[in-house]
Amino acid sequence: MAYPLMEHLTGETFYYNGSVYKNTDSLAEELSRPSDLRTYYETLRIMDGVLLYAEDHMDRLAKSVSSLEDFPVDIEGILDSARCYVSDSGIKTGNIRIVLTNSQLLIHGVDIKLPTEEMFTGGINTSLLKWERQTPNVKVFRGDYKNTVNKKFTEANEHGLPFELVLADNEDRIYEGSMSNLFVIRDGKVYSAPDSKILIGITRRRVIEALRRAGTELSEGMFTLEELKGEECALFVSSTPFDILPVRYIDGYVFDSADNELLQMISREYKAYTAEYIAAHK
Question: Is 0.90 topped by the overall pTM?
Answer without folding.
Answer: no
